[in-house]
Amino acid sequence: MNHKATITTESVHVVSDLQEICFDVLQEKYAKGEEKTLPGPEMAKAIRLRVAKALAAEEKDAKKYQDIFMRAMESGFIPGGRVNSSAGTGIKNVTLINCFVQPIGDSISDTVDGKEGIYPALRDAAETMRRGGGVGYDFSSIRPSGAQVKGTASSASGPVSYMHVFDQSCSTVESAGARRGAQMGVLRVDHPDIMKFVTAKQQSGRLNNFNISVAITDSFMQSLEAGSKFELVHKAEPSDELIEQGAYQREEDGKWVYRVVDPAEIWSGIMDSTYNAAEPGVLFIDRINIENNLHYCEVIEATNPCGEIPIPDFGCCCLGSINLTAFINNPFSKNATFNYETFAWVVTQAVRMLDDVLNATAWPLPQQQQEAINKRRIGLGYTGLGDALIEMGIRYDSEPGRVFGGEITRFMRDTAYRASIELAKEKGPFPQFDAVQYLESGFAKRLPDEIKEAIREHGIRNSHLLSIAPTGTISLAFADNTSNGIEPAFSWFYNRTKRMADGSTRDYKVEDHAYRVWGAIGNDQSNLPECFVSALDISARDHMLMQAAIQPFIDASISKTVNVPGDYPFAQFADLYLEAWKAGLKGITTYRPNSILGSVLSVETPVPQDLDQSEPDRKIRINETPEVALASLRWTNRPKLSAGNPGVTFMVESYESRFALFIGHIENGTQHPFEVWVNGAEQPRGLTALAKNLSMDMRSEDHDWLKIKLDSLSKTAGSPFSMAMPPVGDEMHVPGNVAAMAHLIRYRCDELGLFTDTQRKTPLTDAMFSRKEPKSGTNGTLSWTVDIHNPTTGDDFAMFVKECVMPDGSHRPYSVWLSGTYPLDFNGITKSLSLDMRVLDTAWIGKKLRSLKDLPEAQGDFFAKTPGSDKQEIQPSTIAYIARLLIHRYHMLGILDEKGFPLHPMGMLQAEVEPAKKGKVGNITIAGKVCPECGVSAVIRRDGCDFCSACGHTGSCG
């Protein structure tokens, strides 16, 4: 093979310019020192040169291999994230290895069956995470709850209780560094505490630093298919009480049977939790061990946090990926081909580089170093399969697509094994190599005869060579945002919202690599060919079938997310997992977007109130509410007006501020105002929020409702001033900025004839349970009160939420007030929200609060406790925090969920989320966890990595 092979494909050359996202990720994740000051292409080159030099130092001829390693990376090889960020930096205590597995024995402090006790394991895991490695654990050794603890004459609390200890330790380690301490918790399906484990994350704030997976045995799956009973067992003796209830000891292995169950009940519990919350994942643990090349000297019980590397105790993930799109010649043409020759050269060099990583890295623990040296396990994979298929003109969800995926992977397997055999000739095989037993593994038996013969004769340098890992950030940084791993692209482009140093945000476009290539060679990006199928276009079964086509050629495992639509039937979902087992997969992970993902999944015990409530509840009571047919409103969201829309602009000048007020309208038979904007460097704080609130009011069909709002706001106190009113500049004295804004909007609405229609509908006005704010008598009334302090802006005030008792006995907020130090113009948004609170259908107030909960303010963000928890996070602004607190109060009262969606909508608002349409190319926001970048509840698991479907933020993988 020509060792001077270089990339010659057109695919990369036509988009050689660097996307801004690539520069951002390079700078934030991988560049060190002076590298951060370089322009994008030079920055990538400097990082690669640093890595090449560091790894080549492990070779006898360092200069020769520095050049070879540099060419390999420029030709498509991307070492794992930890290698790119740390190799050659001189930081001695940081590991280049992504992840490890840590053993845990059934003891507090002693070593049992070769596994160290719980607290020594906790110490070692903390040390590993401190050095930058993620950790996987099998908790199955820990005795179940109710088992005897003879030394203390007590009963065990079970493995889940100790998982919380590891979870808290991970949180502490995380606070000391920039990288999240990723963890994987595994429990065998036959463990007596399996159902406690399955539901362990279904409470808010529980095990947030864990991914969890169930180790499914073949015997369980066979019992499930046969409908026969299944035993939950452990070697620890149960308590006398459990023995009295029927627990017994098996003769064949001495294990104790705690319960005999219907496997369908466990399977249903696993599937139900996975369907609703994307966890637990499933590992087919027996298949993992049958396939294992080292079946003769190790037992695998767990995986790393993303599941692509099943490894034994103290095993490691030494990862790297090859960008497949770098080898496509003549993309999108009839002559499109894959450059196997260059690919083979890069694979060969990548194997050597990853083998060198094992020598170059610092090891958190000596046991990890010894395990790695004994077996020299590496995990070479690829990224960009989805985009490579597109550039070849092949659909991902087709039989030709699966054939191509399998062919590429088989070629990579054979090339990597040949390269490792050559390394064994040069440097020797891994110490625990046994040719006869090695070649008896399920995987090695499928190798070509000539490779097996070469292994018998020369040995092999690395026990395992192949793994498909998540490539979220390295694909962004080094591969022009090509599709990740074996995944299809998620979307063809999205808008990335980036928070700047001054607290402001800036948007820019992020494009998929294949989409860029399509446009760069002169094609219309609005007219994509049939081969452009995204992850959300592809059926769940076709996702799984691609994984099944590739798995036979991967000796470790594959990180793959099977995207499942929100309306995917539960029965088919469970069948998908059964089919995955039958297809020979080692595990399967799904992601199904739904309204509760990332929120509270079960009711928690109420926290005791600080307030003495021994006296009668002095809440105002509403004796009756209107009986109305709630008509759907005109627009739930801003209409999309591709041709633009007309509007007028008013300037408002007071003693303290100067701002522009834009009022836009549409012309559809009649002119109808539909939005308000506030702009200007001197605009008062709080008016942008009020404009968003009033824009939704304008888009309702209820003109009386808007009139009520404007009449109320026109009396809002602030700093009084006189302003010139249109059309001729007559002077009007107004009590403040909010009132000025209300008068100008009212003028424009009158000018458009909005309030002259006597036959108009009034759905919002009719649905108010109280037109005027209910007033308390001299005995007063209770309110919900929160202190708010934004040190950045100097806001320091209390928020009071007055509540009433509805005829059905439920409690409802009906008014919100502020008292303390804050901009008086905030009174506008609180007045407006107080009216919104009195609409019967809580979908209305939910929509209003959701529109404000992520509202940013330049240099106005601050740290504060997340409502409902002790965890602190960045709040986008004081107004956003007010909205989040109000959502939390509505959630406490059982009215809204944690994201602000109504638990019992009455039909006033039409469905706000449309199903993804085939061919959609832009942002596709999906419900998920709260994003640390933008604060939107839209962080999903995409290709093994945290990804915000609202702002494009890519977080941790694993």
TrEMBL record:
One of its GO terms (biological process) is DNA biosynthetic process. It catalyses: a 2'-deoxyribonucleoside 5'-diphosphate + [thioredoxin]-disulfide + H2O = a ribonucleoside 5'-diphosphate + [thioredoxin]-dithiol. Catalyzes the reduction of ribonucleotides to deoxyribonucleotides. May function to provide a pool of deoxyribonucleotide precursors for DNA repair during oxygen limitation and/or for immediate growth after restoration of oxygen. This is Vitamin B12-dependent ribonucleotide reductase. Keywords: Cobalamin, Cobalt, Disulfide bond, DNA synthesis, Nucleotide-binding, Oxidoreductase. InterPro entries: RdRp_reductase_class-2 (IPR050862), RNR_lg_C (IPR000788), RNR_NrdJ/NrdZ (IPR013344). Belongs to the ribonucleoside diphosphate reductase class-2 family. Its EC number is 1.17.4.1. It comes from the Bacteria. The lineage of its organism: Bacteria, Pseudomonadati, Pseudomonadota, Gammaproteobacteria, Oceanospirillales.
